[in-house]
Amino acid sequence: MITVREATSQDTATIVQLIVDLAATIGERTSLSEAYVEEYLQFPGSKALLGEVDGQVAGLISYTLHPNLYHAGETCLIEELVVCQEARGQGVGRSLLTELFSRLESVGCIEVSVSTMPDNVGAIRFYKAHGMLDEAILLEKHFTKNTL
After folding, report:
1. What is the DSSP track for the chain?
2. Domain 2-147 classified CATH 3.40.50.300?
């Protein structure tokens, strides 16, 4: 059975491991620490939901709610969605996204956005199957921590 709950400060180590695993799947590393997860969870508008299978955390969706001038209301950006390798195909991702959509609707959120790499056809298919549309291009510029 899959349950979804809001992440708390007691989940920081688990969240770090999920993000480390996510980065590893694309050949990258992350400098994420438990202290940063704690800061993230305390930051206004930043949230994470955890999906559990039989009481064990199997997935994460992190997101940020923020006001948007164009839409004149609150919008949401999905930042990460990750499911443990051993739990894939069991509906954890679907449960996390469905719960997020339900929560967003209940608070009057106007729009939800997500980005993924253009070659991640599985993720694109997943999001489109849940009603998300290919409407925009997200451009990025990365900075090193020393230049900020």
Report:
1. -EEEEE--GGGHHHHHHHHHHHHHHTT------HHHHHHHHHSTTEEEEEEEETTEEEEEEEEEEEEETTTTEEEEEEEEEEE-GGGTTTTHHHHHHHHHHHHHHHTT--EEEE---TT-HHHHHHHHHTT-------------GGG-
2. no
